[in-house]
Design brief:
alpha/beta; 3 domains; 5-stranded mixed beta sheet; 16 helices; 27 strands; globular
Length: 504
């Protein structure tokens, strides 16, 4: 069987030997060096004892070593288990014990005890430390890298072999590990090839965590399309714009809150963003007009919106290049079948809202070691996403909310996204998020959390009156809570679980 990642590394190193594959902190890594370092690490891991199918966990910041580790492990047919660098001891131990990883490649952190993790995870044979600290009982990443040669590892890999276990939650109660196979590694590149037009001339900037599916897509773009990846350790809006200007970035993808953070900068207008060809926002933006502001400063840029989940190897739908329907998530790729169904499993009529269910080879193999949870979402070959959507007469889809987040106020259904969109229309609002809360009279009431633009002020009564112009009475927020910022997870998405814990 072909070894896709190994073969791609050799192909791009041969075609573009001196071209930067990665730029990190202004230091380039050429495709030849990337290939050589990845193969050295792969052979070092084999020499250490890592075999095809072994589960190896990664706990690192957005460093080139994260990229090397992914690609080296993929080159030898291992199963990669990437973790968010923000996770703490209990979360890490829960996930490591759940997946039974045999090796952890990690960076030392003051607030995380790797020694305790090693003691509390029986399956963990060793921890390999990257940079800046030596612990006698642990391996050194540099030793693994230095012990192997740069010849291509001779490992055959089947499409059905396990490539990844991606944890979508750090919960200590019930970790949820998405199982992906080696064929799945081609899903996102195949979608990018269909929906957009990446070439080796492109430069993409990633500030998404590499532990997340959206961050992994950037690595896939790099080796499948020979683009240059400008890697940022974390998302800092001003630094992001500086990098766009400095490296003449041509495209990138983000979640909506990242765009809002960029657009709210006072300095936004001073940067030269003319190199950008397209930008992609994933997930339904609740302020399409705000995102359209990019057009003013990126005259050549096309604005895209798309959709997909970790479980479905995003992107699965994207609006056509050149379309102005940024509110829509677009149409599916030809190999993806989508239906919208009601609670009885019947397809909803055109224009009606229903749960989006999906069938395709891109869907995960299941949740690791959890057949019951897998059976809840995979039924007769269809994946039940939990997202509510509608379809227009042109076949374009629109996300209207999460099934579990839908609010039932006084017997009427309210989608949080439409309330958020209405609040966002207010010129003084920077961000908004809406949830349903228990209410003795209504069953549930609409509660809105609002972040205002710097130096702006508005009362809840003024905001409620503004919303009356855009929303039916039963959709109006019963309560407004003003915050300095909305809580977000590491992928930049608004954390509505955290919002529910905020008291007025």
């Amino acid at each position: 069987m072909p070894n896709v990642i190994r073969d791609l590394l050799e192909k791009q190193a041969s075609a573009f030997p001196e071209k930067p594959a990665i730029i990190f902190q202004d230091k380039p890594v050429t495709f030849v060096r990337l290939k050589d370092d990845v193969f050295r690490l792969a052979n070092g891991l084999i020499k250490y004892g890592v075999k095809k199918g072994d589960k190896v966990a990664l706990y690192l910041p957005n460093w080139p070593e994260y990229v090397y580790s992914y690609l080296a492990l993929f080159s030898i047919g291992a199963t990669v288990v990437p973790f968010d660098f923000m996770l703490k001891n209990d979360e890490l131990e829960a996930c490591l014990n759940h997946c039974q990883a045999s090796l952890l490649i990690a960076k030392y952190k003051e607030d995380v005890s790797l020694e305790k993790i090693k003691a509390d995870v029986p399956s963990l044979k060793d921890i390999a430390l990257v940079h800046d600290r030596k612990i006698d009982s642990f391996l050194a990443f540099e030793d693994l890298l230095g012990s192997g040669d740069s010849t291509a590892p001779k490992v055959d890999i089947a499409d059905s072999d396990r490539s990844l276990i991606l944890y979508t939650s750090g919960s200590t109660g019930r970790p949820k590990g998405v199982m992906l196979n080696y064929r799945h590694l081609t899903a996102s590149p195949k979608a990018m090839e269909y929906f957009v037009d990446l070439t080796p001339a492109d430069v993409k900037i990633s500030a998404l965590p590499l532990s997340h599916a959206g961050g992994l897509v950037y690595i896939q773009n790099c080796i499948f399309f020979a683009i240059t990846l400008v890697l940022m350790e974390r998302f800092v809006p001003v630094e992001f714009l500086k990098n766009v200007e400095k490296y003449k970035a041509t495209c990138f993808h983000m979640v909506p809150p990242m765009y809002y953070a960029l657009l709210s900068l006072k300095e936004f207008e001073k940067y030269d963003l003319s190199s950008i060809r397209w930008v992609n926002v994933f997930g339904a933006p609740n302020s399409p007009e705000t995102i359209r502001r990019f057009k003013t400063y990126c005259p050549k840029a096309k604005l895209l919106n798309g959709w997909g989940l970790t479980e479905t190897n995003a992107p699965n739908t994207v609006i056509p290049l050149g379309s102005d329907k940024i509110e829509s998530i677009g149409r599916p790729a030809p190999w993806v079948d989508i239906r919208l169904i009601d609670d009885e499993g019947k397809e909803v009529p055109e224009g009606g809202a229903g749960e989006l269910v999906l069938k395709s080879w891109v869907v995960m193999d299941g949740y690791y070691n959890d057949p019951a949870m897998t059976a809840d979402v995979l039924k007769d070959g269809w994946f039940y996403t939990g997202d509510l959507a509608r379809r227009d007469n042109e076949g374009m889809y629109y996300i209207v909310g999460r099934k579990k987040d839908m609010i039932k106020a006084a017997g009427q259904l309210v989608f949080p996204s439409e309330v958020e969109e209405a609040i966002h229309k207010h010129p003084k609002v920077k961000e908004a998020a809406v949830i349903g809360v228990p209410d003795a009279l209504r069953g549930e009431a609409v509660k809105a959390f609002v972040v205002l633009k710097d130096t702006e002020a508005v009362s809840d009564s003024d905001l409620r009156q503004f919303c009356r112009q855009h929303l039916a009475h039963f959709k109006l927020p019963h309560t407004f809570v003003f915050l300095n910022e909305l809580p977000k997870n590491r992928a930049g998405k608004i954390d509505k679980v955290a919002l529910r814990e905020i008291r007025d």
